[in-house]
Amino acid sequence: MKKILFNLVVVLLLGFGLLTLFLSTSVIFDFFGIREKEGNYVLFIVWANFLSSLLYLFSVYGLFSNKIWAYKPLALSTLILIITFIGFMFYIQSGGIHESKTIGAMVFRTTMSL
């Protein structure tokens, strides 16, 4: 049962990492018209998500390979997202244009990294 739960978590992290990689690169490079659909996106948030997606995938590799360092990329991703979220709060306070869904998405993503 413990192995099944571990594999489920790793597969979910893999899916989340791949989805994040697809969406962030689609916004950065304007693939498939996703940039327009995202509305008022904040570019430094998108770049933080892109970096996190790579760290998620690196961590998945480490988890499947039973590497000792496998949780370090997740810790680094969490740190990046927390710093980005703090910067985002300053951005909002200074009147920066953003989508309100970005706040919830950042909270969700940071929680997923924990």
Average pLDDT over all residues = 93
Q: Calculate Rg over CA atoms.
A: 15 Å
Give the overall shape, derived from the CA principal axes: globular
How many structural domains are formed by the residues? 1
Which segments are poorly predicted (pLDDT under 50) over 5 or more consecutive residues? none
- Measured by DSSP, the beta-strand proportion falls in under 5%
Largest sheet: none
Q: How would you spell out the order of helices and strands?
A: HHHHH
Helix segment count? 5
Termini separation: 22 Å
Class inferred from helices and paired strands: mainly alpha
Number of strands: 0
Helix percentage: over 70%
Could you explain how this protein is built, in words?
This protein is mainly alpha-helical and 114 residues long. The protein has one domain. 79% of the residues lie in helices and 0% in strands. The protein has helices spanning 2-29, 34-38, 43-64, 72-93, 101-113. Helix 1 runs antiparallel to helix 3 (43-64), helix 3 (43-64) runs antiparallel to helix 4 and helix 4 packs antiparallel against helix 5 (101-113). The protein is globular, with a radius of gyration of 15 Å. The two termini are 22 Å apart.
